[in-house]
Amino acid sequence: MDENAPLLVFILLLFCSRISSSFSNGFFYQDILNGNGNGEIYFNGVKLRVEAQPPSAVPVRGGNVTLPCRFWYEPELSVPRRVRVKWAWLPVSGDSESDVLVAIGHRHRSFGHFKDRVFLRQDVPGDISLIISNVSLRDGGQYRCEVIDGLEDESAAVHLELRGVVFPYQPHRGRYHMSFAAARRACEEQDAAVATFQQLYAAWREGLDWCNAGWLADGTVQYPITQPRSPCGGLDLGPGVRSYGARHKLSHRYDVFCFSSFIRGRVYFLQHPQRLNFSEAVQACITDGGEIATVGQMFAAWRFLGLDRCDAGWLADGSLRYPITKPRPNCGPQEPGVRSFGFPSPHHKHGVYCYSSK
Ligand SMILES: *[C@@H]1O[C@H](CO)[C@@H](O)[C@H](O)[C@H]1NC(C)=O
Ligand SMILES: *[C@@H]1O[C@H](CO)[C@@H](O)[C@H](O)[C@H]1NC(C)=O
Ligand SMILES: *[C@@H]1O[C@H](CO)[C@@H](O)[C@H](O)[C@H]1NC(C)=O
Hints:
It contains 5 helices and 24 strands. By secondary structure, it is of the alpha+beta class. The protein has 3 domains: 17-160, Immunoglobulins (Immunoglobulin-like, Sandwich), CATH 2.60.40; 164-260, Roll (Mannose-Binding Protein A, Chain A), CATH 3.10.100.10; 263-356, Mannose-Binding Protein A, subunit A (Mannose-Binding Protein A, Chain A, Roll).
């Protein structure tokens, strides 16, 4: 008896790890004991398989994206079975999982902000790839396609990642003035979304260094440091993303890190005979068939379209900036970046950057 005890524990551990390695919807399958630990389930000698290949997709904002997924039976069935297909989404912001679409045969229903924007490809039998049209900044995250056949179900995950750029944002009132809700509004007004920790971390790895703390999508406040120095957490700490942890969303005030994605269209410095005050600048872009560019559009054009111009111009929030991808004398620091002159008086006369979707 004593000799067998370790073996029993070992077997129990094996079962536990099998159960937790496959997705569970609350039912207990008798066939879990027959599973091979790779998330496969057998019933009546038939195995239902679900696969998402490739497991990630990188769409363009405003475009369409296909999240691959297919299912099949082993051995193959002679008569097709009626299955229920469900796609769910776990947002990067750390909110809980929500339904995207459920389908039986050719009938389907979509939910929430995916309503009427998603459908199944169903090109060939077993194809349950999800097509999302007009992809938005909010759509990033982990998707799960699930096939339910009677009591059996299987699922596979697909990651959707928007290529983007993270930028720190401070409103014209100055440093540390935004509650979490105000921070979210500020990013939206700049055609961007509050950055997630993963996005800020990726930006830090690419060299982002910023000494003011900003909100992130999960309600924490952090800042990225690549060159440790004394006012920014001190020299004792190594480079890293420094965190103040979760802050009170209503009463605490900080700056924010926004995330802007690749954009269709173009951002350009308006050729105009005179320099313009702010209200003239807004109007001049409209007259030119576009609109004054937001900060998010400026960063996206700088990062993805290589926008480089050594002339300061108005942007939609009333700030004055210019984008440099090839640093040179008299155009700011040695590193590429979007340079900012802050928020000058709206009566001052400058150039302007416009955005056109065409
Ligand atoms: C995206 O899909 C929709 C719906 O099928 C289609 O009307 C539209 O033309 C597609 N857009 C692009 C850019 O492919
Ligand atoms: C795409 O989505 C945006 C919001 O994310 C909306 O403003 C725009 O009208 C949508 N475009 C189409 C063609 O549905
Ligand atoms: C900009 O100049 C116009 C005159 O061209 C004037 O009417 C307007 O009030 C000025 N706006 C600002 C913000 O100075």
